[in-house]
User: Fold this.
Amino acid sequence: MGVRNSTPVLDRLVNPLSLCLTPESAKRVLDLRSDPQLQIRVDKLARKCTEGTLGAQERAEYASYVSFGTFIALLKSKARQQLADSKVGDD
Assistant:
């Protein structure tokens, strides 16, 4: 799906945003969870993708969820790193 290839681009997009995080906001980013109804939909599409039964519209919908999920995962990674760095600076 090209997520791996887009990671450097996403990193360039997320990095300036992550620099705006305070320790408190970084913790809030790490607490983000998807809406339960949305998670049910994503799980259904993931199952259909694995089975090879996604239609074209579902494939596009699933691809957008994967892209957004990658963005959030990268932002959470940056938040974890920022929290780790702030603890090192506290020593």
The two ends are 42 Å apart (CA to CA). The chain has a mean pLDDT of 89. The chain has four helices and no strands.
